[in-house]
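[User]
Protein folding is very new to me. Any chance you could explain this protein sequence and its structure tokens? I have pasted everything here:
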Amino acid sequence: MKKRNITEFQILSEIVRKQPHIKQKEIAEVLGITVQGVSEHVRSLAKNGFIKSRGRGEYVITDMGMEHLKLWIGDFKDYLSEVNQNLYRYKDTWPAIANEDVKKGDKVYLYMHKGLMYISKTKTTEASAIVYEDGKKGDDISIHELEGYVDVRKGKVIVLKIPPKVKGGTSVVNVEFVKKIMGENPDAVIATMGTVSAVLLHKLDIKPDIRFGVSSGITNACTRGCDVIAFVTGKMTENVLNEIDKNKISYTILDAELESND
């Protein structure tokens, strides 16, 4: 993000925290910039319709400003995630999972699989490292001297909408359709929200990876490169979709009810 956008994000954040009783001098003191600098940004924010004056130098955020603040928060999350990933490169050693037997001093390549870091001597990627110790396939291995960048694509979500009990619950779920989706996405992380969804997975002998803090769990999995199948009961779908939208994650909604897939 541009420096100007960051400053305006901070000003909007301060207005949200303390509105309507906040003045430019207070904002300047918190952000460590001049009152003149705050005034310039405030004029820009007001001109764009993000804030409005309540008189006597007091300001409140508008609905438009709130929407832009939410977008900026999403951008900051992506930016900070990238910075954090780059900082992580400078650790002395990294833990990773060996895709095959390795020996100390081997050059290996790094890649992500289901949210975990793997190393391989044969699967070439843009990121490489040196093995710090001998190990067998499947062992946790220490690596160092990282070079390059581990490409982590943002995962996608399939939201399987499960009918609530008042609409029939598991008795009206198209089980074959659900199995088909599962078969087409064998490496997906499985999330479940709601009693009916939990019962359905139990009947299918599927153990979910995410049961609690589901909305944030889904977004965290996607930012680590995992695709997710989310079994969500009825109206709970809206809460999940709001969090996915906020984090700019691609998704598909599928109805698991029998009549919807006949």
Summary: The chain has a mean pLDDT of 88. Residues 128 and 178 are 39 Å apart (CA to CA).
